[in-house]
Amino acid sequence: MKGYVARSRTTYNPRVMPAVARDVEKKIESLRYKIRHHEYLYYVLDQPEISDLEFDKLMQQLKEMESQHPELVTPDSPTQRVGGKPREGFVKVPHSSSMLSLDNTYSEEELRAWERRVHELSGRADIDYVCELKLDGMSLALIYEDGKLARGITRGDGSVGEDVTLNVRTVRSVPLSIPAEKLKKAGIPPDFEVRGELLMPIAGFKKMNQERENKGLSLFANPRNATAGTVRQLESRITAERRLDYFSYMLLKNGRTFFDRHWKTLDALQAAGFKVNQARRLVRSIDEAWEFIEQWEAKRESLPYEIDGIVIKVDRTALQDELGFTGKAPRWAIAYKYAARGGITKLENVRWQVGRTGKLTPVAELAPVAIGGTTVRNATLHNMDEIERIGVRIGDWVRVERGGDVIPKVVEVDKDHPRGKEEIEAPQKCPVCGTKVVRTEGEVDYRCVNANCPAKLIGTILHFASRGVMNIDGMGDALVAQLIEKGLVENVADIYSLTKKELLGLDRFADKSAQNIIDEIENSKKLPLERVIYGLGIRMVGERTAQFLAEHFGSMEALEKARVEELEEVNEVGPRIAESIVEFFSIPANRKLVERLREAGLTLTGKKKERGTKLAGKTFVLTGTLVHFTRDEAKRLIEDAGGKVTGSVSKKTDYVVAGADAGSNLDKAREFGIPVIDEKQMQHLAG
Ligand code: IVH
User: Fold this and answer.
1) Atom from ligand 1 closest to the CA of residue 134
2) Is 285 within 8 Å of 202 (Cβ atoms)?
């Protein structure tokens, strides 16, 4: 027996196993089967058939057997959900296809406008939709290989996420393995990807925050933040303790939706043992969807987790493909967001917060109030005009609202309570550097105009390092504050001169964490030109404008030299943005900054997007499922050749590119006598 135990897992061969060992293995497997079944009943269906005590006994038995036979422990064993020791960081992994977000609507009218657009773009009259709860957690991709959980990846920036597999393994509603027959029955191939929402139920969130408060630790603002913080724990044992839950809502194969209908996907996921939210409905019109929305608005408080709205998705995959995407959100789905939830509390004080641009924002300091499972202590008052409009004074009782992602805001004074006495004064000086503040004629905000105000610097550096910009993970408030205080960073270029030794001299930095930051900084140099442009923090240049500028000019050098008229040629750039860019580069310190970024090796050149002219003036409609191109690729091909792609066929359409399963667009094309071509012909025309 001894020799058998000592065998390493890789050389272990079941066929040469002694009979007694085979017996043990069988027993272990049958015990695992039992435990998985009870886990499924408890965590997925919420219908346990045995007591916790009986369950614990089974688990104990399995643990004992596995400890006697460590060579038989497999990663998908239920005992492996307990979590392990701290690790040193997370590996970045690209997604099989972008993890998108959703566009939001806030009224019935907007929702109906979306429906109209879907009808117009698709040219169809009868469309089925699936309604689901919009769970307020974070999206997470699960990769299964041969029916076994291989990787769990966070959304990250949508194209690259972090490998959090060890933590995901601790989530009880995530199957670690699925038997081949079960997958087959559900119609799911052995290798696939599931996407869904990871969340922390409200009860667990409250308990965790209570424990943190007792220990004097900082509190999580809401269950969503707590989920994100928990799944990114370096110590998976902590993740295991916090009991996250996972609902799945997408099934992909090679990055593409697998089934032909979304409704089928949800049923198949459920049949395979995934937790799929029961609150879902297949509807044939927005009227029916609206019923679902109203029904759940009334019932949302009774749910054990937070939702912030309802998601409505076009059911048919072919139609989804036809509708495609705009920016980062699909046209085939929409989120209807419920109105913000509110609470009444006392306004204890107002402080002025200085942002990256020097803008001063009044922040209401409130007596803590629970709103939708979250304790709110601070809320924005926007600006002095808003303070005057609602007529609020310190000491007033106010109504505070919180909606999904946004910062809580003070919306009105509750006049049923005794009124506060102290007027809120407009700021005179910057609370950080003491410089006299300025309010320009016609503007609502007060600004600190001191170019060297440390608050601006903190904001600028945080923006530069943030995920959507240079993605320097780990460079958050605490680190940036220390870097500035120690004089190590005075502008964004200084980040690239930081040394490991300097980082080791800061609080809470050990060899590994310092090296991680250095690696992150190094990696950021590879990010494309548009990120650097966005990172400079030029007034009015957001993410989208930065992208257009990068595509138009193809290099920082060309952008620096551009005149107002040239800038105005760029997509969506008007005179105000153009002037802001010229003004930025007219300041010698800014030019010097760019020079230092160049010397540090950042990517300051990109691909100039020369649009071809072969298809200039030609309008295309894509319909049906294409084989050699994704929708986006086909669109890009046509646009790069100077053509235009629209959603539905009209008399102005020049060509219809039809793939398999093409719908009414094809009928219309025939009706109007518009040439219908296939992918090859499209490529030929564009080439
Ligand atoms: S579908 C392309 N379904 O909402 C489709 N998302 O605001 C994208 N979310 O990033 C996702 N509940 O994290 C979908 N039933 C649901 C959802 C849901 C919550 C989240 C998801 C997404 C975010 C977008």
Assistant:
1) 12
2) no
**Residue 547 CA to ligand 1 centre (angstroms):** 25
**Pocket probe mutation, ligand 1, options 103, 197, 227, max atoms within 8 Å of Cβ:** 197
Q: Whose CA is nearest to atom 17 of ligand 1?
A: 134
Distance 375 CA to ligand 1 centre (A): 24
619-686 under CATH 3.40.50.620, yes or no = no
What is the Å distance from ligand 1's center to 546 Cα?
Answer: 26
Q: What is the tens place of the pLDDT at every residue in 480-496?
A: 989 998 999 999 999 99
CATH class of the domain comprising 104-337: alpha beta
Residues with CB under 6 A from ligand 1: 100-102, 132, 134-135, 139, 197, 249, 311, 330, 333, 335
Positive or negative, the CA dihedral 182, 186, 187, 188 is negative
CATH 3.30.470.30 residue window(s) in the chain? 104-337
φ, ψ of residue 530 in degrees (nearest 5): -60, -30
- For residue 627, the CA-to-ligand 1 centroid distance in Å is 27
pLDDT at 369 over 50: yes
- Show the tokens assigned to 1: 């027996």
How large is the average pLDDT for residues 606-624?
82
Residue owning the nearest CA to atom 11 of ligand 1: 101
CA torsion sign for 487, 491, 492, 497 is: negative
Catalytic residue among 27, 57, 92, 134: 134
Pocket test for ligand 1, best of 139, 266, 307 (most atoms within 8 A of CB): 139
pLDDT (tens digit per residue) in 48-77 = 888 878 888 999 999 999 999 988 989 889
Quote the ligand 1 centre to 101 CA distance (angstroms): 6
215 is annotated as an active-site residue: no
Q: Whose CA is nearest to atom 22 of ligand 1?
A: 101
CATH tag, 342-429+436-447: 2.40.50.140
The CATH classification of domain 454-600, taken from the options 2.60.120.10, 3.40.50.300, 1.10.150.20, 1.10.3720.10: 1.10.150.20
Q: Which tokens hold the place of 440?
A: 């320009």
Portions of the chain given CATH number 2.40.50.140: 342-429+436-447
Q: How confident is residue 498, by pLDDT bands cut at 50, 70 and 90? A: very high
Mutation choice for ligand 1 from 132, 134, 265, CB with most ligand atoms inside 8 A? 134
Q: Where in the chain is the domain with CATH 1.10.287.610?
A: 21-81
Q: Tens of pLDDT along 527-562? A: 999 999 999 989 889 887 898 899 899 999 999 999
Q: What distances in angstroms separate CA 396 from CA 379, 388, 422, one per listed residue? A: 14, 14, 9
The answer to whether the CB of 273 falls within 8 A of the CB of 234 is no
The CATH superfamily assigned to 21-81 is Helix hairpin bin (1.10.287.610)
CA 226/CA 238 separation, integer angstroms: 12
CA–CA separation, 568 vs 575, rounded Å? 6
Ligand 1 nearest atom to the CA of residue 138, by list position? 13
Q: What residues does CATH 1.10.150.20 cover in the chain?
A: 454-600
Contacts of 435 (CB under 8 A, 6+ apart): 429, 448, 449, 450, 453
pTM of the complete model? 0.58
